[in-house]
What we know:
alpha+beta; Rieske Iron-sulfur Protein; 2 domains; seven-stranded mixed barrel; four-stranded antiparallel β-sheet; 21% helix; globular; binds FE2/S2 (inorganic) cluster
Amino acid sequence: MERRRFIRQGLHACAALAAIPALASLEGCASAKGLTATVADGAVRIPAAELADKRFVTVNAKGHPDPLLVVKEADGSYRAVVLNCPHKGGPVSEKGGELVCGWHDSRFTLDGKVTEGPSKKDLRTYPVEQEGDQLRIALG
Ligand code: FES
């Protein structure tokens, strides 16, 4: 019995060690689900080229609690939408051209306007300005 316990604990330790490289590469995986950026001077900056041929891109910004969806409007302007539901804080993601809360299914337009409850409030948005080849998302 002691030997089995020793072997089982050894297997768990090996599995934990094997997971470390996988954890280290998670940031790389996150890039498949969106861009990574960092909050600096109260803003997040991403390359404008990321939206050259897309309507929107998800940005995971270190220093900001929630992912952002940066949307290119029909008039060429940009807007950042916070992917956190105002109902009870559930995660919001893009599905089929609209934003949907994963907890209670509130629905929003891509620019954050609520279309179906239970949320009664729109998603929070931030202004986005183009500065040269960068898009600056002003937080605050
Ligand atoms: S937390 Fe989003 S609908 Fe409830």
